[in-house]
Amino acid sequence: MDEKIIKVLIAKPGLDGHDRGAKVISHALKEAGMEVIYSGLHKTIDQIVHIALQEDVDIIGLSIMTGAHISIVGKLMKKMQEEDIIDKTVFVGGVIPAKDISKLKDLGVAGVFPGGTPLFETIELIKTHMKRT
Amino acid sequence: MAVARYIKDDKDRILDVILESGIHVKPSYTPEDLNRIGFDYEKDVADPGQYPYTRGIHPLGYRSREWTTRQYTGFGSPEETNQRFKLMISHGQTGLNVAFDLPTQMGYDSDDPMSEGEVGRVGMAVDTLRDFEIAFKDIKLDKIGAGLTINAVASIMLAMYQAVGEKYGYDPKVISATPQNDILKEMVGRGAWIFPVEPAVRLIGDTIEYAMTVMPRTNPVSVCGYHIRESGATPAQEIAYAILIANVYIDNVLARGYDIDAFVGRFSFNLNVFGNMWEQIAKFRAARKLWARNLKEKYNVKNPQNLFLRGLFGGGGYGLTKAQPENNIMRGAYYALVAALSGAQTTALCSYDEAYTIPTPHSALLSLRTLQLLMDEMGLRDTVDPLAGSYFIETLTKEMEQKIEEETEKIVKYGGMIKAVSKGYIQRLVARQAYEVEKGLESGELLKVGVNIYKEGESEEVKLHEYNYESAERQIEDLKQVKRQRSQQDVLRTLKELESVIKEGKNVMPCLVECCKAYVTVGEMTSIFRQEFGEFQEPALF
Question: How many helices (H) does chain A have, and how many strands (E)?
Fold first, then answer.
């Protein structure tokens, strides 16, 4: 049986414009056979959830470089509950200090990929996670 | 590529070295190489201070003029920023480089819902003139220049700088600001854009036109190849795109009927340092030459002083690593060495913790000391362009020049810089290259210490600057207070005038200064621009 193609939204929430990482991971996931939608810059949580709904993605990948990851993820989770799309998996990448990783997981994030995480590791973790769910 | 690519055999012998710009490096160079490239000292290099300025713009280099040290500074509230400015000045820093938080960069006030969680985080928050009054209190604005690291709303910040200068009794003619003010690079590489290309370029033209007469010591634009390189451009592309972008701004001002010699001498550049050392040095030498030639041959610039490529050559953030952060101290020192060997006018060196966040006072001071000891201890002031005449460096400089010209030609063929940025052509290209670099690091074809080689000995996480939520709340309170105290009538009047000035296509700067003086907020001014200009539509990349 064919495996279902994983559909990913790579999103840049908030005002930060450092999108090198988001674009690199988009390329990597595409080459790994996933379908990738890149949100573009400066998206609000509402806009991100809207795109996720509209495109019916399996995964929302947030790229956050500003240090505001805890508050941004908190808002996303609340909005996802409101829209009843908590079945979608959330991953976070960017400048994330080690001490915040467990906090993000407590909020419901499935995996955190701090800057410097090898691409293959990210891809493998996503694939393994999606097989489990 | 992040660094040069080394092709090796099984015994780890180097078979080939390919620089990021595509140049192959030979194991050794001789006078024969100079013959091969048709090297002509007078034409290709010439003495320091002589056209085409390959060896530098001043005959005596750092002997006559030491480089300006301008560490990127600014965080949290204007009070904290003011303290940091004074600390760095007391340590001998000779220029200021103001970091603004993202809401300010994007034209939102601290109390805007879009600003939540971001106030004062990566730079200082600026809502009204009050914030500049505090940030620049007791700083001698006629003695020290300020780099304003801002682009989309650079016109507002320049107006704010004039307003604060006047408030503290300085004639705008004696103050010197260098707003970054390069919107096209934001569209390519850093993302802090607001307005569409055309009106955004018009605003830059306004600042250049205005500065000519009102703030003549100001460098109204600092063209940033730096950020384009950070996004994935090669060194050759960095210079090619920077010159093409500068030409867009030049053309805007020329279309207003000015003589090129009246304004182009105040252009400055912000260029990047990380990567292969020799390639960087050759890049800067070639860049000076190509900029001078561009101005002389394409624009017929008459005054030799207006042909100078004056630059802040800064240690590149992308070169730093999150792994083994203390290695970044060594990287920074070598970046500074490259900048000095390349004849930088100004340097700012990323601090070792900047792969995480804005620097602590300790790390910022270490960077400043790195810059100072090169000048005062290691002999970098002794002689100009000490690598000149090297068979290798001269050959490489010439080859870099050719590579930069090839990259320029590609954009010209595509239809020019504005089209290439609007359509996302350059964005797609550099994003793809960034991905190739990551793949190269993963396969081990590109080497990065602590990342894919010598990974043992990872030290603990560094002590970082902590975000202060209280200072963000205080900033919002202070904004409310300013709004209560200011004259509502003046606010409405100046904003109305701004609206009509924009509609009529007049220069917005005089009106922005009036707005600032009336304590109109950055968000209020920007919303008028947003309403008149709309927003940049990012081209789809995937």
Answer: 5, 5
| Residue contact B118–A28, C-beta within 8 A | no
- Which residues lie closer than 8 Å to B469 by C-beta, 6 or more apart? none
The number of residues in chain B equals 542
CB-nearest partner of A66 from B102, B190, B538: B102
CB B201 within 8 A of CB B372: no
Please state whether the peptide bond connecting residue B103 to the residue before it is cis, i.e. omega within 30 degrees of 0: no
List pLDDT tens digits, range B315-355: 878 899 888 888 999 999 999 999 999 999 998 888 888 76
Which helix (H) or strand (E) segment holds residue B522: the answer is helix B522-533
Residues in chain A whose beta carbon is closer than 8 A to a beta carbon of chain B? 12, 14-20, 23-24, 26-28, 30, 36-38, 40-42, 44, 66-68, 71-72, 95, 97-99, 114-116, 118-120
Contact B191 A37 (CB under 8 A): no
Q: What is the pTM of this model?
A: 0.95
- Residues in contact with B477: Cβ distance below 8 Å, sequence separation at least 6, in sequence order: none
Express each pLDDT in B153-212 by its tens digit.
999 999 999 999 999 999 999 999 999 999 999 999 999 999 999 999 999 999 999 999
- What is the biggest distance separating any 2 CA atoms in chain A, rounded to whole angstroms? 43
Quickly list DSSP for B369-389. Answer: HHHHHHHHTS-TTSSS-TTTT
Chain B residue nearest residue A31, CA to CA = B435
